[in-house]
Amino acid sequence: MTQTDATTEKSRPMTAPLEGIPLPDVDALPDYERGFWEGTAARELRIQRCSDCRVFRHPPVPMCPRCHSLGYQWAPTTGLGRVYSFLVAWTPVHRALREKEQTPYNICLVELEDQPQLRVISNVLHVPPEDIRVDMPVQVTFMPAADDPEVVLPMFVPRAR
Ligand SMILES: [Zn+2]
């Protein structure tokens, strides 16, 4: 485990998805959830979008909370966003995080540019945890999970402002 040894030394950035933690069984998911993962497998960040009022919603749900329509599409997004909020975990709770020495890791809430308040939970890669900031511009990238390469995870990396 690499942690800060001095005030000038920064911690190890995340460079890949966390290993050993639960992944979705994509084939067993209902249609209203599966489209998200089919999108990531195609290297697109597809978000559920109401067919009637056209509002994106995430996490996916069967009925539009705005207009109560049951119709939806899986619409590609730009994959561009900003860090809305984040935390850095230094003390792992899950056994796999301890055993594989995967700390520190970050959990980021990214607000997509496609619609205000449209947010996804992910990780920001290639940034030391001390340098992650609210409002940092990021863009999506896709990485197969180490434990199941069929599951492709949407991750975020910094981008120029
Ligand atoms: Zn709607």
Structure description:
The protein folds into two domains: 25-76, no CATH class; 78-161. It is globular and about 55 Å long. It starts with 30 loop residues before the first helix and ends with a strand. The protein has 161 residues and is mainly beta. The chain has two helices and eight strands; from the N terminus they run H-E-E-E-E-H-E-E-E-E. The strands form two sheets. Strands 6-5-4-7-8 form a five-stranded antiparallel β-sheet. A three-stranded antiparallel β-sheet has the order 2-1-3, with helices on one face. It binds zinc ion (ZN). Zinc ion binds next to loops.
Task: Please sum up the structure shown.
This protein is mainly beta. The protein contains two helices and eight strands.
What is the number of strand segments? 8
Please give the share of residues in helix.
under 10%
What is the arithmetic mean of pLDDT? 94
Q: Spell out which ligands are present.
A: zinc ion
Biggest sheet character? 5 strands, antiparallel
Overall outline: globular
Structural class: mainly beta
Order of helices and strands: HEEEEHEEEE
Strand content: 25-35%
Number of domains: 2
Question: Which spans have pLDDT < 50 for at least 5 consecutive residues?
Answer: none
How many alpha or pi helices? 2
Task: State Rg.
Answer: 17 Å
Describe the strand arrangement of the main beta sheet, using strand numbers: 6-5-4-7-8
Please report the distance between the alpha carbons of the first and last residues: 32 Å
